Every structure is written in C-alpha cells, then in structure tokens.
Amino acid sequence: MTSNSQNIFYYSSLIGYFYQYGIGCLINKTKAFEIFSNFIKDNQKVESNQFTLDQKNETNNFCNDDDIRKLNKIVLQYFYSLFLYKDIILYRKENYKLHIKNAKKGDSTSQYFIGDCYHLGKNIKKDINKAFEWYKKSSERGNISAMYELGHCYCYEHKDEKKAFEFYLKSAEGGDKYALCKVGDYYYYGRSILKDEIKAFEWYLKAAKKGHAYSQYLMANYYNYGLYIPINKEKGFYWNRKAAINGVLEAQYKLADYYFNNSLNKNESKAFKWYLILANKSNNNLKAIYLVAKCYRDGTGTNKNLFEARKWIKKYEFLSKDYKKPLITLKDFLNGSNLNAFELSKIR
Question: Which residues form a coiled coil (predicted)?
Fold first, then answer.
C-alpha cells in the first residue's frame, strides 16, 4: 500500500483493521484511524474524477479495479464505523476524561454526566456517595435532571421522603417529565405530604403533555372512568392512543380492542395492526397471538391467509400449554372453533 498510492484502494480496509487489532503487528489505533480516515478523504477525490465510459468498458471484467475499489469502500466504511463505535461511543473513557475536566470547571451538564457515571458504574467503580455529590453540584447550577436524580438518592438511598419530594418538585417545576409523574405519585399516595387526588391528576396531566407515556395512560383511565373528574370518552381515547403509540402495553391492548369492538368507530384493519404489534413482542402476548391467528383465518382486518393462521395458532397452542391457559387445537381452530369470551378474558 505504501509503495503505490493506487493500492490504498485495495488494501486500506484490511491494513487499518490489522493495525486496530494487532494482526501481524503491534496494535496501533492511531495508525488505524489515519488509514481509515485518509481513505475516506482520498475516496472523495476519486469520486470527483469519474472514469469515462470508454475506460469503464475497457475494464468491464469480473472483479476489475473498479469492482475492488467499490468493495473496499463498503468494507472500509463498515470497519471505520465499528472503530468509531467501539472506541468513542461504547467505551466512554475519553468522554469521562473530557467531562471531569468540565465538571470541575462548573459545567452543570458535565457534573450530571459524572454523577451518572458514579451512580451507574459507567467506566468507573460505582459510588453512590460520589454520585450524590456530583448531582448536588449540578443541581445547584439549575440542572433539572440532576434534581430528579437527587430526589432518587434521597428516596432510595437516604430514605428521606420529604427531601426526595423537595427535589422531585424542583425538577418538576423545571419541566422534567419523569419528575412531574413522581410528584403526581406523591400526591396520589400521600407520601410525606397530604394525599390529594385532584393535585395528583394535575401533575400527571402535566407529565402526559410533556410526553411521559405512563402518565398518558393514567390520563386515559381518569377520563374513561371518571376518576375524580367527569367522564370524557373523547379525551380518554386521545390519551390512550398517545400512550399506545409510546409503547404502553395495556394502552395498546385497549386501543386494539376499541377498534375491534366499538360500534361507532369500528376499524378492523387498525385493530389487526395493533394485535400484530402485540403478538410480535417478546413477552408472548397470548391473547394477541390468538386474535392474529383468528384474523388471518377469517380475513378480519387483513387478507385471509390460512398459512399465517396456522403459524400463529400453532404458536398459541404451544405457549398456552406452558402458561396453563385455555387450549384450542389446530384442527378445531381451522374447522372454525373459537375460544369463548370468558376463555379469552383469561389470557393475556
């Protein structure tokens, strides 16, 4: 590669990789980085001076120079991405060194980052006391995330509910969505303060508007069931849909059931899509798996597909034995038998 500048296009990805991992040489990550990054720059120059059509035709054979150059470009970009990911993102030691300098100078974001490192044991030994110190410094400079973590420290480490609430409240007043929900919890359960369900609702609503998924689900329940406020089905649906989109499992089930069963706004296609999302989750949602199979068998909300119906009902049959849930055999199902409403209510 060094004897001929053109050879950089053939060997740069491999030589850079060899230097990175010490294959046939001493590990030299600086050299690896130089090779990777220099090729990216050189490749940009080459691309600005494309071959003419005649030149391309002259080398139009299997695995010609142009093919090798293109292949090396793909491989090298892959290696270069891994190099950056491993040494800059995954391993945060350099980030820690950078942040500790800024933290000592008084930067609240870096102070919070260092607090997080000690709290979670990122690249350094876990130390709750040091985490507390850095969160406190960051909090004093107005960092609302640090205030929230201080609340956590007081709540779970120091067992001081009053202090915990004080910092959760400060963080919530600054707009932290997790703190807003926490303050709602304190009012709802009356932890260290006077229980007040209406204030709890108000704080949960603020958290929901900030995008806190579980608070959005709570809002749906408040409005749907008239908990301390008048029933409002329209707002209940609005918040349940928000929570479902943001990944709350119960909200997703309720939204799917709503589209499946609601006489005024029935939408079997949307119901099927939500059941399919639930069925594909890793926590084996048996009800969703069964209903996806049924939708495929009957052509409800999707095209009729007995192959897919068979696949999903076999999965349900297999899992229901392990979880001791109502059984239905593949043969009976394909012949039109169904679980009844009571049996369906027993699975999830």
Answer: none
Strand locations in 19-140 (E): none
- Residue at 323 is within a domain: yes
| CA geometry: angle 162, 164, 165, nearest 5 deg | 65
pTM of the complete model: 0.70
How far is the CA of 291 from the CAs of 1, 197, 285, 299, 345, in angstroms?
61, 37, 10, 11, 12
Number of domains in the chain: 1
User: Measured between alpha carbons, how far is 167 from 161 in angstroms, rounded to an integer?
Assistant: 10
Whether 310 maps to a domain, the answer reads yes
Is residue 236 domain-resident? no
Domain of 303 in residue numbering reads as 249-346
Domain assignment of residue 196, yes or no: no
**Domain CATH number, residue 312:** 1.25.40
- CA-to-CA distance for 64 and 48, rounded, in angstroms? 20
pLDDT digits (tens, 9 = 90+) for 186-204: 999 999 999 999 999 999 9
Q: What is the DSSP letter of 229?
A: S
What is the separation of C-alpha 319 from the centre of its chain, rounded to a whole number of angstroms?
26
Contact (CB, 8 A) for 127 and 133: no
**pLDDT-derived band of residue 40, with 50, 70 and 90 as boundaries?**
low
Tokens for 166?
A: 């004080």
The pLDDT tens digits of the residues spanning 267-297 come to 999 999 999 999 998 778 899 999 999 999 9
Q: Are 23 and 35 in contact (CB under 8 A)?
A: no
The token pair at 218 is: 């709570």
